[in-house]
């Protein structure tokens, strides 16, 4: 590969963190960027922040609520909503990937090899964060935490791997159209092969810690639905990549509202098609599991994500988020930090409430406190980053100013 320029080594293209600097409105032009304007799409931040809220409520209620019948209904709906954050984070990693690679290609004039090297290294960095997070959880959980937890496949791991794989696709493809078609093909292929990789065609020859990255087996006899292996989760990232390539195309930029309406309509079609295919009596798989491995469920969830993307756009363009401070946009800009920070205070030894023993009111109060705490952490991180960026801007000397 061609050597990488030193100026493009820290791209934020994970499903958590933003790809470009923050802005309070839908789009912002940074006049101090001599390399060209950086565009901030706040509806992507808002949707990422919405995923953070769903994640927080799911984790807090799962950890703190008691097991009595009076809390069972809330726990059921909370866990149902908690199925959305992971697809959203992965999908948005693909959208962000399309935005960043497009900017590198159009504004920086980098070659495919340079873009691929940049993105693959960034994916490897996110994957390393995932391993570091597992190490932290293991050390904080000692002596009861098993050493095998070090090899659990978490959402950070699969986001990192997804970015690496998308970087490979970017390296292979030479045009935006080719990249778009490859992203669709890979996404559909992963979704279609997932039932086989989980059942009849498992890679049993691999050690468990490698097979777990393929189908989430971990140390058990069967794949576990609470883990995040390549099959099926990376399919959401490639679906996001295809969506991002469409949204940032020349036509979509000129017809933004029409493009987002098309995305929302396609989401409704995908959702209906997934349920329709599931209702057919004839299934092509020997073992069919709609809720965990079915391509029909993947199609329906993609439909929900696409519909939420339209809702986010409408809310940020014409809703309150376009006129005042939005906590969701703020949290969406630092979602990796929120993910990392809240876990120990919800599931770990530092949990702010006693686990599996709280009433609905007490758990909801704890959730509200966690929301405020994570929002404060997010604001602090943003202000700190702004100060660091401002400090790096060169100040003209008095001599140069008088010229």
Key words describing this protein structure:
disordered N terminus, 403 residues, disordered C terminus, 65% helix
Largest sheet: none
**SSE order, one letter for each helix or strand:** HHHHHHHHHHHHHHH
Low-confidence stretches: 1-11, 18-39, 398-403
| Measured distance between first and last alpha carbons | 45 Å
Rounded radius of gyration (Å): 22 Å
Q: Shape from CA axes?
A: globular
The proportion of strand residues reads under 5%
Mean pLDDT: 87
**Computed structural class:** mainly alpha
Q: Got a strand count?
A: 0
The number of helical segments is 15
Task: Please estimate the helix content.
Answer: 55-70%
Explain the layout of strands and helices.
Elements: H1 42-64, H2 69-81, H3 85-106, H4 112-141, H5 155-172, H6 176-198, H7 208-215, H8 230-247, H9 250-254, H10 256-278, H11 295-318, H12 327-332, H13 335-346, H14 360-392, H15 398-401
Helix pairs in contact: 1-2, 1-3, 1-11, 1-13, 1-14, 3-5, 3-8, 4-5, 5-8, 6-8, 10-11, 13-14
Word description of this protein:
- With 403 residues, the protein is mostly helical.
- The chain has helices at 42-64, 69-81, 85-106, 112-141, 155-172, 176-198, 208-215, 230-247, 250-254, 256-278, 295-318, 327-332, 335-346, 360-392, 398-401.
- Helix 1 (42-64) runs parallel beside helix 13 (335-346).
- The longest helix is centred in the last third of the chain and has 33 residues, at 360-392.
- The N and C termini lie far apart (45 Å).
- 40% of the residues are buried.
In short:
With 403 residues, the chain is an all-alpha fold. The chain contains 15 helices and no strands. The longest helix has 33 residues.
